[in-house]
């Protein structure tokens, strides 16, 4: 140790500053690696940004993105917060709509991240879809047409397409990890929603459009412990008056009141945390 200190004293000022920068950089990288290490749990993050998006991290830190919001800048900022700077890969991107506005966030992701697999409806002929298709082709991403009944498993997390998107409805997706289930319907049509309610899918978390008349019924049928409202439809009333009635059966969450929502599950139990903006 004494020899090291003597050698350090012999260095010039710029060499000492360089050494400090290197040490500090190593500490930052080590801290980032520790913060983002796989923990054996599934993580669901519903950010409070324009449009809809759900970020999923599997038990071994594989990345699944369901939609990418209508705000490219916001989704890129969220990705920067959720992933370490050296992580530039998305394992699965699921698009529940082919509307140009809904594809703008996906295009931003495709320009900055390597996307291994994309589940998407057929792209309509428009400039945004054309740019997205070109970006996916250049990085040799595999693109699969999204269809009802599709199932795939990524790192112990099973994703099922319960209803494929069409001109009037976005897709409905179920995630399963162990005994934990989540039902994600960012903006399905009333007809598709009625058919789903009959199926009575079990879920601990229901992500559903605000505001609709079928939300409480569906949450009761599937036994949801938490109901998170997406931005699927124009708001008909302020959520504060709606939530004032309360719910003893489950927790109700809306981004105007609660901000972003982070859900963690070990396949049995579930933990939920909100991140409201000041």
Description:
The chain is of the alpha/beta class and 278 residues long. The chain folds into 2 domains: 1-35; 38-275, 4-Layer Sandwich (Metallo-beta-lactamase, Chain A). 34% of the residues lie in helices and 28% in strands. It has 9 helices and 15 strands. The chain has helices at 2-10, 13-35, 72-82, 100-112, 127-138, 190-199, 215-222, 239-243, 255-258, and strands at 42-46, 54-57, 63-66, 89-94, 114-120, 142-145, 151-154, 157-163, 172-177, 180-185, 205-209, 226-230, 251-253, 260-265, 270-275. It has an 8-stranded mixed β-sheet, with helices on one face. The chain has a 7-stranded mixed β-sheet with strand order 7-8-9-10-11-12-13. Helix 3 (72-82) crosses helix 4 (100-112) and helix 4 packs parallel to helix 5.
What strand order characterises the main sheet?
Answer: 6-5-4-3-2-1-14-15
Say what the CATH topology of the largest domain is: Metallo-beta-lactamase, Chain A
CATH homologous superfamily descriptor of the largest domain: Ribonuclease Z/Hydroxyacylglutathione hydrolase-like
DSSP helix fraction: 25-40%
SSE order: HHEEEHEHEHEEEEEHEHEHEHEE
Number of strands: 15
Q: How would you classify the helix and strand content by structural class?
A: alpha/beta
Strand content: 25-35%
Distance between the termini: 48 Å
Spatial shape: globular
Compute the number of structural domains.
Answer: 2
Largest sheet: 8 strands, mixed
Radius of gyration: 22 Å
Low-confidence stretches: none
Tally the helices: 9
Keywords:
alpha/beta, seven-stranded mixed β-sheet, 2 domains, eight-stranded mixed β-sheet, globular, 278 residues, Metallo-beta-lactamase, Chain A, single chain
